[in-house]
Amino acid sequence: MNHAAKPNHLVILCHPKRESFNAAMAKHYCAAVEECGQSAILRDLYDLRFDPILRPEELPGTSTFFQSPQVAYELALLARADVVVMIYPIWFGTPPAMLKGYVDRVMGSDFSFRAVHDRDSTSKLAGAHLLSLTSSGTSQIWLEEQGQWQSLIQVFDRYLERAFSMASAAHVHFSSIVEKISQHSFAQHMEDVAQAARKACAMVADGDARGGKLSPIRPDP
């Protein structure tokens, strides 16, 4: 991974509403990163009209493999990132389909299942840190009772960390997020987001992007 002099955070937002709680998280995270003197690049997948459909010719390892300019651009951004931040709502127990399409089309563009199986460490994301910021309308206790929380951590966070040889994976979840959330709760949640950003910045400061771990941060219930 080609690290710039200033640590770089690639923030991937996946929510259809521009005024959503998730969009606010992305805004506050980027602002906190900039205040720490580091760089934040926001990629709003809905605003970009990102196409999540993987086409046959995009399958890596095939004789007809083709990488579109859009995919190549996103992959180049990932290759320069010290921290990859995914911000999304949990829908029906999983991330939105568009985010899964981003994983399929971009992260997996030049990295086949064989490379994952063989623990190939030449992924464009090797050494980067993964941080997920998510929301749900239900409580985290309910998600855990359904087994959904544990499943998401294992089949998404931990899998991406190991498959692409990332340095660490951490997850900050905000539960019981409803449309009429109080201003006090909203402000506290945004401070938790900023805290997560500051901790990520501290870890990758001074060129130590490959060292340490992003520890999970649990906001107050």
CATH topology: Rossmann fold
Q: What order do the SSEs take from the amino end to the carboxyl end, as H and E?
A: EHEHEHHEHHEH
Overall 3D shape: globular
Indicate the low-confidence ranges by residue numbers: 215-221
CATH superfamily: Flavodoxin domain
- Tell me the radius of gyration: 17 Å
CATH class: Alpha Beta
Strands, total number: 5
Share in helix: 25-40%
Q: Helix- and strand-based class?
A: alpha/beta
Largest sheet: 5 strands, parallel
* Overall tally of structural domains: 1
List the total number of helices: 7
User: In which order are the strands of the major sheet placed?
Assistant: 2-1-3-4-5
> Strand-residue fraction?
5-15%
Task: Please provide a written account of the structure.
The chain is globular and about 55 Å long. Strands 2-1-3-4-5 form a five-stranded parallel sheet, with helices on both faces. It is α/β, with parallel strands linked by helices and 221 residues long. Helix 1 links the parallel strand 1 and strand 2. The protein has a single domain, classed as Rossmann fold, CATH 3.40.50. Helix content is 39%, strand content 15%. Helix 1 crosses helix 7.
Topology:
Blueprint: E1 8-13, H1 21-35, E2 39-44, H2 69-79, E3 83-89, H3 97-107, H4 113-117, E4 129-135, H5 140-145, H6 148-163, E5 168-174, H7 183-204
Parallel strand pairs: 1-2, 1-3, 3-4, 4-5
Helix pairs in contact: 1-7
Task: Give a brief description.
The protein has helices at 21-35, 69-79, 97-107, 113-117, 140-145, 148-163, 183-204; strands spanning 8-13, 39-44, 83-89, 129-135, 168-174. Helix 1 (21-35) crosses helix 7. It has a 5-stranded parallel β-sheet with strand order 2-1-3-4-5, sandwiched between helices.
